[in-house]
Amino acid sequence: MNQKQARYILDIIADMFPDAHCELNHSNPFELTIAVLLSAQCTDETVNKVTATLFQKYKRPEDYLVVPLEELEQDIRRIGLFRNKAKNIQALCALLLDKHQGEIPQEHEKLVELPGVGRKTANVVMSNAFGVPAIAVDTHVERVSKRLGFAAEKDSVLEVEKKLMKRVPREEWTQTHHRLIFFGRYHCKAQNPQCELCPLLEHCREGKKRMKTTPTRKPISKTKTAKA
User: Fold this and answer.
1) What would the pLDDT profile of 62-74 be if each residue is shown by its tens digit?
2) Are residues 215 and 125 in the same domain?
3) Residue 63 appears among annotated catalytic residues
4) Looking at the domain assignment, is residue 24 inside a domain?
């Protein structure tokens, strides 16, 4: 892929999802960190249902530590891997109070030291809470990047991130992250991608394979897709 092709793909996706944004409900960096931690192997929709009451009950790190672990587990039991996540939340809160005055650190290297916080979570927090450009690679971003040729099929998550950072202007990293998620979540789905409606079919490895058995396909204009 050359830079011209990358720019074309990014512009098409921007037209399709101009208002892409973080769909995890939160009101501060601490809530966002907890929400992203909970979102691993779980939908944002389910996380938002849980945090609607969770964030009413727990507002500060101290609040998560004054209840028994079993109580916190029950509060988030609708979330996948809830037992492990409950342990990580309490350990994270203890570390925040011990080393960071109860505040979420703004440095990437300090964020990834928090229990349950990996590189993806740290990138989401850095970009959405603190305005630092970053590309967080979740399952949607990884899938779309590989299908559209930004990365190779065997690339690791870190390799996908590095290749996207090279192709995407730094000032567009955060917004591109959100747009790729929306594109993967609502259009280029894992099992049922909308290949027959996709304006990027000619650039998509998966789409070309899927459409080989389709006899005809009407071209979809950029303008029509943008309104979808």
Assistant:
1) 999 999 999 999 9
2) no
3) no
4) no
